UniProtKB/TrEMBL annotation:
Keywords: Metal-binding, Oxidoreductase. The lineage of its organism: Bacteria, Bacillati, Bacillota, Bacilli, Lactobacillales. CDD domains: CuRO_2_CueO_FtsP (cd13867), CuRO_3_CueO_FtsP (cd13890). The keyword Protease does not apply. This is Blue copper oxidase CueO. One of its GO terms (molecular function) is copper ion binding. Residues 61-174, 344-467 form the Plastocyanin-like domain. PANTHER family: BILIRUBIN OXIDASE, CUPREDOXIN SUPERFAMILY PROTEIN. InterPro entries: Cu-oxidase-like_N (IPR011707), Cu-oxidase_C (IPR011706), Cu-oxidase_fam (IPR045087), Cu_oxidase_CS (IPR033138), Cu_oxidase_Cu_BS (IPR002355), Cupredoxin (IPR008972). Signal peptide: none annotated. PROSITE patterns: MULTICOPPER_OXIDASE1 (PS00079), MULTICOPPER_OXIDASE2 (PS00080).
Length: 515
């Protein structure tokens, strides 16, 4: 095994870090006792056979003991906050009951899952109304990866995620199972959902009071729903499945003693080669799987994980058995880049603006409008750009539904070292053009957007129809704004004109009516 290069910087443009935002809220060290890290349980299938699995995923309100004193009113999936980890097995046919016990309509978006859209994918066109349930089916046909499920009822995605509707989804396959990785869930293989919150009087969340059109942030780091968490290290090596589940915050991760860690996976699966870091930056919705080797520590030692200059989690070292397992220099085979028709048009996604002025390709989201088309099964080039140079600009995390893409280049140069695997979300620096190779496997309507959730709710989102050449003009029933507003009005028992939806100000201030 050759000596690997260790990367010690965050790669992204420092002047564009969220720390330079006018509305930036820095993390603070919470003045609360430390608590054992909450590790989500695994959701038990309703039934499983050799070929099929059945799940019920229940969006429900609850109360969670996050801080000392009063419990916080939260939402979760089969849980009071966040949810239980959902295991999907490659090749299995899934039957999922989506149950809504919330007082408002919601949707269930399978972020990173390669399924048909828009109804199975679970964007804004797949509402599940209060007290009802929907049934979906799909076959898992993608590599082992850490994905996630979250609410996506535009323009209220942000508030519902902020209240807790986000949970890990783990795809398993035979290739990953043979690699020398930790995989004892809850012991040496743990999800780490990175979020931040602002707690108000009585330990409650108040999304509308905290609203910022450039993304809601809070001073308190919340990891798996735990504030000031610690994790008991009982094995030499620990696999951390990081998920940036924040509305806005970027996480710049490092250990207090610059302990080296090895990244083995990104959004859509295992990387072709392991990459070693001391510092790692994540933008909203990205997932990074890393292995941390604690061989140099003894029982009683503590190792602290930081974001920027604030500790967010403590690893408490206990006795562990020696582990001399070596990671191979090559982990998986990525398929060669397929040839792209040189005469095919290059698709464009030009992100621009801040606050209420955010757009893609000079447009705001319209539920009834199809903004682009791409034939199913065809490889195409996309150029994703960020023209935002206001006050140094900001990094926009770009996400595509219904596909995992390959990153070709950043401003004509190689992508970052950990971007050589499958991705569905990528941070784009101000003034940068990122080239992607994209293929859709299923026909349907999918969204592509900035994953600062307030930006997508505020209109920084468009739609593409992936079409089958046998039925290129297939029509889909798409949700419209009047139907949505009338449903919300009924749920809240107030006239439509009195609804308080902060993201809608992004349309009103620009004189745009969202259809």
């Amino acid at each position: 095994m050759s000596e690997r290069k260790v990367y010690n910087d965050y790669f992204y443009d420092e002047p564009a870090f969220n720390t330079h935002d006018g509305g930036y809220i820095p993390l603070e060290v919470p003045d609360v006792p430390e608590h054992k890290l909450n590790i989500p349980g695994i959701l038990k299938p309703d039934k499983e056979t050799d070929t099929d699995m059945w799940y019920t995923v229940d969006a429900q309100p609850g109360e969670t003991q996050i801080l000392p004193g009063e419990k916080t009113k939260t939402w979760g999936y089969n849980s009071s906050i966040l949810g239980k980890t959902i295991i999907l097995k490659e090749g299995k046919h899934m039957h999922v009951t989506l149950k809504n016990d919330l007082p408002v309509l919601t949707t269930f978006h399978w972020h990173g899952l390669n399924v048909s859209g828009p109804y199975v994918d679970g964007g804004c066109h797949a509402p599940v109304y209060p007290g009802t349930s929907n049934e979906i089916e799909f076959t898992v046909d993608q590599p082992a990866a850490t994905l996630w499920l979250h609410a996506h009822p535009c323009p209220e995605t942000s508030e519902q995620v902020y209240k807790g509707l986000a949970t890990p989804v783990v795809v398993q396959d035979d290739i990953e199972s043979k690699l020398p990785f930790p995989r004892n869930y809850g012991v040496d293989d743990i999800p780490v959902v990175l979020q931040d919150r602002h707690f108000h009087k009585g330990n409650q969340l108040n999304y509308k009071e905290d609203y910022d059109p450039d993304g809601v942030q809070g001073p308190t780091a919340m990891i798996n729903g735990t504030v000031n968490p610690y994790f008991d290290v009982t094995t030499q090596k620990v696999r951390l499945r990081f998920l940036d589940g924040s509305n806005r915050r970027e996480w710049r991760l490092h250990f207090d003693d610059d302990l080296k860690f090895t990244q083995i996976g990104s959004d859509g699966g295992i990387l072709p080669e392991p990459v070693e870091f001391t510092h790692l930056m994540m933008v909203c919705a990205e997932r990074d799987e890393v292995i941390v080797d604690f061989r140099g520590y003894k029982p009683g030692d503590e190792v602290h994980l930081y974001s920027d200059d604030v500790p967010i989690m403590t690893f408490k070292i206990h006795e562990f058995a020696p582990d001399d397992t070596k990671l191979p220099d090559h982990l998986i085979d990525m398929p060669p880049f397929a040839k792209v028709d040189k005469n095919a048009p290059v698709h464009k996604a030009a992100m621009s603006g801040m606050d209420e002025s955010v757009e893609i390709n000079g447009k705001k989201f319209d539920m009834q409008r199809i903004d682009d088309r791409q034939e199913v099964g065809k490889e195409r080039i996309w150029e994703v750009s960020n023209s935002n140079e206001m006050d140094g600009g900001m990094v926009h995390p770009y996400h595509m539904h219904g596909t995992q893409f390959r990153v070709l280049s950043r401003n004509g140069k190689d992508p970052y070292p950990n971007e050589h695997g499958w991705k569905d979300t990528i941070g784009v620096n101000p003034g940068e053009v990122v080239r992607l190779q994209v293929k859709f496997d299923f026909p349907g309507v999918y969204m592509y957007h900035c994953h600062i959730t307030e930006h997508e709710d505020g209109g920084m989102m468009l739609q593409i129809q992936a079409y089958d050449k046998q039925d290129p003009h297939k029509k889909y029933k798409l949700m419209n704004m009047d139907t949505l507003l009338n449903a919300l009005s009924k749920e809240e028992g107030i006239p439509v004109k009195d609804l308080d939806i902060p993201a809608m100000n992004s349309y009103k201030k620009m004189g745009i009516h969202m259809c």
